[in-house]
């Protein structure tokens, strides 16, 4: 097995453990245990942990090593606030640059989201939500929007997995359809309104200290 594929394998293994709630915020990620469970070298495991740290799913603490990220509500506020500013501007660019392939990818995700809604599974919903919004970033044509929005989307995914108690994705599906239609029709006002609702911008319009 090549080193790159080994890193990818352990990366997916740990990420799946988080997505299926077998690992919770604050849980330690012990290299020896992961090596025993996966049969993969600790060198590859360290590389995978660095990748997960970059995505915001893992943090490193002195004397404790790697842990599943335990975000605070204040951090959630700042992530959502920053994401809203970046994604709405990315949408402005995406309206002018959007491609047929990008629209088809959104359509496929919406169809999958409809299936998940019938038999709701939070881990699948979170992944579809992340992919849907990643398309907006990619269609903007700005590599920095794509890079930083994907980092923020990974953090949001962690919040949804552990803090969101929704039992279906109906509201998200509705706003995602509106976002898709706005992008397809190049309707900026409709897109901004739908994104604002989907991102919960009004909920995060004041800082924690002001609440």
Overview of the molecule:
This protein has helices spanning 3-19, 31-38, 42-54, 73-97, 100-118, 122-139, 143-163, 170-185, 188-199; strands at 58-61, 65-68. The protein is mainly alpha-helical. The protein folds into two domains: 3-68, Arc Repressor Mutant, subunit A (Orthogonal Bundle), CATH 1.10.10; 73-210, Four Helix Bundle (Hemerythrin (Met), subunit A). A two-stranded antiparallel sheet has the order 1-2. Helix 1 crosses helix 3 and helix 4 (73-97) packs antiparallel against helix 9 (188-199). It is elongated and about 55 Å long.
Notable traits:
2 strands, 71% helix, Arc Repressor Mutant, subunit A, mainly alpha, elongated, Four Helix Bundle (Hemerythrin (Met), subunit A), 211 residues, two-stranded antiparallel sheet
Topology:
Layout: H1 3-19, H2 31-38, H3 42-54, E1 58-61, E2 65-68, H4 73-97, H5 100-118, H6 122-139, H7 143-163, H8 170-185, H9 188-199
Antiparallel strand pairs: 1-2
Helix pairs in contact: 1-3, 4-6, 4-7, 4-9, 5-6, 5-8, 6-7, 8-9
Strand residues, percent: under 5%
How many structural domains can be distinguished in the coordinates? 2
| Cα end-to-end separation | 53 Å
User: What is the CATH domain class of the largest domain?
Assistant: Mainly Alpha
Q: What is the ordering of alpha helices and beta strands?
A: HHHEEHHHHHH
Instruction: Provide the gyration radius in Å.
Output: 18 Å
Helix content: over 70%
Helix/strand-derived class? mainly alpha
Contiguous helical run count? 9
As for the CATH topology of the largest domain, it is Four Helix Bundle (Hemerythrin (Met), subunit A)
